[in-house]
Write a structure and sequence with these properties.
This protein has 175 residues and is mainly alpha-helical. The protein has one domain. The protein is 77% helix and 0% strand. The chain is built from nine helices and no strands. Helix 2 runs parallel beside helix 4, helix 2 runs antiparallel to helix 7 and helix 5 crosses helix 7. The longest helix is centred in the C-terminal third of the chain and has 36 residues. The radius of gyration is 20 Å and the shape is elongated.
Length: 175
């Protein structure tokens, strides 16, 4: 229960904070792409995502939150749909065969394993969903800051959740 309150508090503070909504949206998009592409610690995708996260001003908390939620969604749905999408992109779209033959054989790109159906499907799904959800996410953050947060401020529970010392006390009591 206490961890749910901590997560809600951090999400509220992220949405109502002073960080640029575009940076939060980029963090959300980066986490979405990270969650859909299969990866491990030795995969080049992991290194690229970490470098992008550190170089850009993406919200790290938003990136990790969307990464976790996307990984849970992929675990629940399975990777079959990503494999089908990768198969369609790599095999069925015959007009792209020359492009894939050229690009996927490049020395650095070959390390990414984009010739695997799941990896290509995850990358395509991540890029398409990120592009589709970026603007609505920015608009949601702007709406939340202008209209949502002032409405929520009226409730005593929200004011209580914002206070840091309350969470320190709850952490000591809850152990």
């Amino acid at each position: 229960m206490f961890t749910v309150l901590k997560i809600l508090r951090k999400l509220y503070l992220a949405f109502a904070g002073s960080r640029d909504p575009r940076h939060l949206a980029f963090g959300f998009s980066l986490g979405l792409c990270m969650g859909l592409v299969p990866q491990g610690l030795t995969e080049p995708f992991t290194l690229v995502f970490v470098v992008l996260l550190l170089v850009t001003r993406a919200g790290i908390g938003m990136t990790l939150t969307s990464f976790g939620l996307t990984k849970l969604l992929v675990m629940a749905l399975g990777t079959g749909w990503l494999e089908q999408l990768g198969f369609i992109v790599l095999e069925r779209l015959t007009f792209l065969h020359r492009l894939w033959a050229t690009v996927l054989d490049l020395p650095v790109i070959a390390l990414f394993g984009l010739d695997r159906y799941v990896a290509m499907g995850g990358l395509v799904a991540g890029l398409v969903l990120s592009a589709a959800l970026w603007l609505p996410f920015v608009r949601f953050v702007v709406w939340f800051r202008t209209r949502g947060a002032p409405r929520l401020e009226r409730y005593r529970v929200v004011r209580w959740l914002k206070k840091f010392w309350v969470f320190r006390l709850l952490g000591l009591v809850a152990g």
